[in-house]
Amino acid sequence: MKRTLLCVVVVIACFHFGFMFLEAFAWSTQFVRSLTHLSESAARETVGVGRNMALSNGFLGVALLWATFALREREAYSAQWVLLSFIVVAGVVGAVTMRNYRIFVMQSLPALVALGMSWLARPYARTEDQAIQQIIEIERQILAINAMNPRAIPETAKGAVPRGQHPKLLGLVEAKLIVADNLPKEMRVGVFKEPGKSYDAWIRYSNARNLDDRDPGGHGMAIKLFNVAAETESSNVTQDFVLFDSPVFFVGNPLQYVEFEEATLRAHGKSRSETRIAFLLNYYWRHRKQLKNLRNAQRSDVIDPLAIRYWSMTPYQFGSAVVKYSAKPVGEGAVPVVVERSKDMLREAMKVRLGRTDAEFVEFEFQVQVQTDARSMPVEDPTKEWDEAVSRPITVAHLRIPTRQPFDTEERNLIAENLSFTPWHALHGHRPLGGINRVRQAVYESLSEFRHALNHVPRQEPNPPTQAR
């Protein structure tokens, strides 16, 4: 298929070189006038127009050959689609305006054939397993690039290779998760099986991408519970909940994830405006709904990471039910602390919040939203928000973060950098569901191993906060 496509593209390019010759040197001949329906006098008067059209066709032919032979496979695929689509439209317009269907046959039809063949031979994953491997390859490239770029390393990393996702640490805090009393029987699942039971926890707050807190972007809240009393999916005695300050994910399925990662790689290292253009041209023009989701997630109004709500975005097993998780600040914790705007203002806000002496802790309600309709609350499409008016979140536990804890220390930052979080550190009763979570299982595992190897540190689960003091 690829070889045949190559031949078709070369033929189309040669056609355009032929058009260029006719328009530049034979514009007023009877053959060209039979195509353009121009009189002899009109053809002589518009020779300049013909030569201008010749330049356009010549550039199209050269651009097609350049895209096919000079670019890498995926860049060539994108460029071919743009150029061939332009040729199809130009042929249709020419056939209509000149009232000559032969223009469509000679120009648009071969381009349409090439577009179909290009799509069939597209250099992207066709299966979920292929998608996972391609995502891992791209993420490892980005991680390796960041390892060589001091400007991509947060100050808290102290020169270590940062994680691929959520690299900037805002703070690692110790906390307790206390299972709610009077839980309905159907909610007594996994770590929430015993009302009143408490678990020690680490919570890592982070920026999704940005190193400057003033820039719009997403924020993460990753929770690791200790002394979980059952076998987990990863054979650890910890349970992770990975949350984000948006209720929906930014891609819909593993195949789209590959395209998004490819766009991320192409935009890597560019300015903010260049990055937006790169994402628009390489991904979002095909996925406009997801562009809206991303814009909503690129929040610029966050001034206190302890005063905003976080969601799991993707669904999870909850005994016999399917749920999404969220963590919602309550009481005075829902009122943000205001500090001076700076590149580290979110960490500064956490210092103020946790340095207060008039409160014992900052509290979040840990909630589950139960799937009540598989169609409007899909498992396999995390870009679709589950309506809380249809299924109201249920508080199953309380997260309490003690104040007056010294979280802004080199020792605490080192623990945070070496931590690994994944939705698959989970009890079987809280098993992650959906294609995006299956991607995360392999990708998070591979990238964590790769990052720890680059940093020359062992990859292991940490001690609980009580043992880390």
Automatic annotation (TrEMBL):
Membrane-spanning ranges:
50-69, 81-98
This protein's source sits in the domain of life called Bacteria
Task: Give an example GO molecular function.
Answer: heme binding
State if DNA-binding is listed as a keyword: no
Any idea which UniProt keywords this protein has? Membrane, Transmembrane, Transmembrane helix
**Protein name, per record:** Putative membrane protein
Per the UniProt record, the lineage of the source organism begins with: Bacteria, Pseudomonadati, Planctomycetota, Planctomycetia, Isosphaerales
